[in-house]
Amino acid sequence: MNIIVCVKQVPDTTVVKIDPVKGTLIREGVPSIMNPDDKGGLELALRLKDQFGANVTVISMGPPQADVMLREALAMGADRAILLSDRKFAGADTLATSYALSGLCRVLDYDLIIAGRQAIDGDTAQVGPELAEHLDLPQITYVADAKVLDNGHLQVDKENEDGIQVLEVEGKCLLTVLASAFDARYMSVSGIMEAYDKEVEVWSADKIDVEEGKLGLAGSPTKVFKSFPKAMKAPGEVHEVTPEEAVELIVNQLKVKHII
Amino acid sequence: MDKKDYKNVFVFAEQREGVIQPVALELLGKARDLADALGEKVVAMLLGEGIKDQAQMLIEFGADEVIVVDAPELKDFLSEQYSQAVGQIILDRKPSIVLYGATTIGRDLAPRIASRLKTGLTADCTKLDIEPDKDGEPEFRMTRPAFGGNLMATIICPNNRPQMSTVRPGVMQKMQRQAGREGIVTEFAPKFDASKFKVKLVKTIKADKTVADISEAKILVSGGRGVHDKEGFDKLQALADVLGGQVASSRAMVDNGVMPHECQVGQTGKTVRPNLYMACGISGAIQHLAGMEESDFIIAINKDKFAPIFSVADLGIVGDLHKIVPMLTERIKKELEK
Fold first, then answer.
1. Cα(A39)–Cα(B230) distance, rounded to whole angstroms?
2. Which pLDDT does position A23 carry in this prediction?
3. Is B266 inside a domain boundary?
4. Cβ contact (<8 Å) for B104 and A259?
5. 3-state secondary structure B229-259
């Protein structure tokens, strides 16, 4: 079985801060990490490899620095890593990103594509399904578990608001995976040693099966009109008082608001 | 493509097991504002099996027309079946805008459609407006949180149609229901290509719904790290009981297993806007604030006077919730007995 895993390098948004004066993101000192849902997707691929034997290729699109993350993926147990890096991809929205990735997938052999549900910087959850459509593959999103049945079909648990749908899929497909369902393994010492003998392949746009006009900014239907820090509402009063006084203040306000 | 050919604001009216979801009505409310600003109509797409009798409700919540697709293929949500039906409606009817709920269904379906029709999609919007562009033409602007809620971004889709977005549940306001409001019901029969139906539903396992949905609650008593443990949450539950509300939680207390995920408020949990939100022992990480700051009235109790939660609280109390909450519960009981 040949498995492609899509991964993205993201800033750790739990530690991102906003410059209160300029209203821009302070990126300095913010660590770059492998997107958590993607790491869950890699873990699923590696579990399938452990059980059934598989060839796992991790792919990513991004700046050359993303090779650090791909090395981590190799050290976790991936067999091959390809980074799509080219100025022609710059400014891509989810449609143009998924299109570029589809051009890479088309020149690789695969039986299964796994992506994370969403990236913590964009939170769109769109690249996976858009990629599936470009490749005319069935998709299953919000995957909490997956196993290979005796007939070779894949059985997948998909999480939703009401519980779980158990789905069966025949043939090639694309899954988007929840990090919470697959606790990722650590890099092993031998894995780290091996990773440094492996190469992270860096590919430009001319190595993949795409029309150039559909890449990057030109291929992106959506544009950022503006971005701005979130407006905070004016804070109310803060009181440092005894518990008795606190209870009085709260009860008074609840009465004013007709809650009691 | 001529943009002028594309008209009307379409809403994907999500139903699950035949029940129209609240987000569908919220979207109709917003679609009504947008359509009125554009001088266009609101059209709901209602897909499922045996769901036609629900169309009138969508009209009473703001739809001018409901397109019903009633087919056995659409009994349960499956990506390909729904994508074929919705894709064909859009190709046939050419809407200018299409809105979906940012639910597990909407976020599965909408990107599939966007990629099929090669158009733009903006995820998880919290604000939608029509504003004049530089030529004075009406422009659809979609605003959403990015970078884990640290930044807001306004997105436009200037050259492709339809312009599509998924919208976060619990954010838009539904219209007051107008009983007897009139509209058109149209039936649509898609041409299904069953050879593409590669995913089969084996079974559905329902989660134990002993926990009521916090996004529907009018009063929430919510706890964070400062609550410490299950016993701490019992104090919050007692207060919620006298107020007729429910207990919610920050992410920290879900991650450490004290509270179930259904109770989690915030960026990776639920968005809530109750009449009263009492934040007890919650410091107020930006991801938490993103899920509750639209609440009508916010009371925060925290030991740390510099906690960010106080920046969104209408009434802030610096103090020990373990003392204040039980006293408050007793006091409110007495007030209610008067």
1. 31
2. 62
3. yes
4. no
5. CHHHHHHHHHHHHHHCCEEEECHHHHHCCCC
* Predicted TM-score of the model (pTM): 0.84
CATH code, domain carrying B308 = 3.40.50.1220
A44: Cβ–Cβ under 8 A, 6 or more apart, which residues? A114, A143, A146, A175, A177, A182
User: What are the Cα distances from residue B50, in Å, to A64, B11, B81, B86?
Assistant: 53, 19, 16, 17
Its CATH architecture, for the domain A2-219, is 3-Layer(aba) Sandwich (3.40)
Bridge partners for A78 per DSSP? none
B25, B164: one domain? yes
How much is the pLDDT for A256? 86
The token duo for A55 is 């060839």
Task: Tell which residue, A202, A210, A223, A214, has the closest CA to residue A63.
Answer: A202
Query: Which residues in chain B have Cβ-Cβ distances shorter than 8 Å to A242?
Result: 319
Size of interface A-B (CB pairs under 8 A): 257
B184-231 tens-digit pLDDT: 999 999 999 999 999 999 999 987 665 578 988 889 999 999 999 999
* pLDDT score recorded for residue B255: 86
Q: Do A238 and B305 touch (CB under 8 A)?
A: yes
- State phi, psi for B98 to the nearest 5 degrees: -130, 130
Question: What ipTM does the predicted assembly reach?
Answer: 0.90
* Same-domain check for residues B123 and B229: no
DSSP A44-77: HHHHHHHHH--EEEEEEES-GGGHHHHHHHHHHT
The answer to whether the CB atoms of B123 and A142 lie below 8 A apart is: no
Are residues B114 and B155 located together in one domain of the fold? yes
Domain of B284, in residue numbers: 214-337
Tens digit of each residue's pLDDT (9 = 90 or more) over B139-176: 999 999 888 777 889 999 999 999 999 999 888 989 99
B contacts of A93 (beta carbons < 8 Å)? 120
